Amino acid sequence: MTIPDKKTSLALLRQMMVIRDFEETADKLSLRGKVSGGMHNSSGQEAVAVGVLSALAPLDVIATTHRSHHHTLAKGFTSREIMAELFTRSTGISGGRGASMHLGDVTKGHFGGNGIVGAGVGIAMGAALGIQQKGDKKVSVGFIGDGGMNTGRTWEAVNMAVIWKLPLIVVVDNNQYAVETFVGRVTGGGDLAKRAEGFGMKAFNIDGMDVLEVRKYVSEARERALNGEGPSFINALTYRYYGHNVGEKGQYRTQEEIDTWKSTKDPIDHFTAVVIENGYADQAVIDEMRASVRAEIEDAVAFADASPEPDISTIYDDIDSGKLGVQL
Amino acid sequence: MTTAPTTAPKVQNPNYSEAFQSGVREEMKRNPGIFILGTDLIERGGHFAQVKGIAQEFGHERVKDSPISEAAMVAAGVGAAMYGCHPIVDLNFIDFAFGAMDEILNQAAKIRFMFNGKVPLVIRATSGVALGGAHHCNSLEALFASTPGLSVAVPSTPMDVKGLIKTALRAEDPVIFLMHKKLSGIRGEIADENYFVPFGKAKSIRSGTDAVIISYGYSLVTAQKAAQALEAEGVSVEIIDLRTLYPLDEQAINDAVKKFGRVVVLDEAPVFGSITAEIAATATERNFSSLKGPIVRVGGARAPISANPAMADAAIPTVASIIKAVKQVMAY
User: Fold this and answer.
1) B220 and B116 in a common domain
2) What's the ipTM?
3) Does B6 map to a domain?
4) Facing residue for B84 by CB, picked from A115, A130, A318
């Protein structure tokens, strides 16, 4: 795997560290009741988010899932505005109306997290249709989990993207468990890329713990989409270190399994080693990076804590435009 | 966005579908972001000829034949609308919306509220009770009207079809645009390109002095027949066409209740949990003292619609049931 230049590589590493620190911090805060409605922790899945988003242009579109802090951070939103959203404060990315599951800002190409499994891929497909209609040189990425592989709407959207050659990239952020259900137990045929290939699209099963591999496959998919070659499907195998939701006491997998993934496949450890081997950083630089990330997340928590609650008199704002009732 | 539109053919005395075509054509010429997607639109022009000729005029980029994938059809419209287009998703029959309910009720309706975005989207469908049986005769308008974020148009004339679709295509909201099966054949005048019907403005379609019937859609045709029969008996009935169910013209409803005090609310949806229930309850809360007696609701049976014509008719209001209701309010 070709490693990018020093600046880019260190940025990838730092972004993964930001996600990990953000998630572990938010997880603790959630247990203390600071996160309205709980949250879904993406620790372990950093390489998928950072690999995908680093291969996109800033104005490319994403639509994502209930587990989307990592995608949203990697898209370029700040730890401050995402932490504030978890605290449902007015300074949050969704103005405090969304919390953990509904992060989004359409004007910046983030078409939303989603409380409904599979919905994000459909919206991303629609965005890809919009891109095509307007003749823009952009792509749209629909994130989905392994759980979303068995809802019919996903494949309706995939089929539509194929027949219209839409600039869509479906990324399966495959952490292997739909809540507590192992993907292999509920997925006919087993091989997700083969399933997608059956719809007539380029499809790949890749290592979602390797940020450079994810980045490479998404870059190539983006090129194909921009060349009018239509959608691609990337099943990135990864692992969720924590439960489906904060506070989960799961009996569905062994501690040994979790420990093995953490000790042998961790995306941050793995890429840290690559960066050091390549001479881009020594341990001192890594330690310094970790410290600056820690400071950033502490600042985000302080910012969120100090941020005002939304004005409850605004519950009727932004429901509709009010323009339908105007006589033109 | 590649095909240059040509001049649309002028239609004399257009029917309901031609009025839709006329409004859509005019707005498509003005706004290159409008496109239509749905099943069987290009050759067939839709099951009710609602977009006949538009593909030939504007090209296949702007009228797209889709697979029968309702969830993806609506999702395509939602995402493209968020991106800045103004799609019209044609679901054919509103019953087919069941395959896309999450996309409509949970996604399209709520994006503006949470994600700093707009969803300028029209979901057009043919609705109403007619022949065709239980799977093609659902009256879902109350469901959509009660969902925050959605607006619902229920035009009853070619004039309003055109005026309302043009307004919908100038706004930036998800609109459910329902065209009644049994109005497909009606003809009437339509206005020129500068005529718009705002949402939330009801219209009196028959003047009267004794009682008022508030309704929408095909039920207005039945109401007119009942009103004529009642006229012969010396009872003068006003009829109000709501035209949109959300926003609902509460002012017009208030005014009518105050003016007449004898009110019949009519539609063909099952009365249990219907728009007529909403209107009757609100009117009673706000203007109880103006009422001379209880508001009477005339609506559909809480029963699936049968394919047998007589059984289907028995499940919805008739001229006789409307006359009976008006006499009921006149008894006070």
Assistant:
1) no
2) 0.97
3) no
4) A130
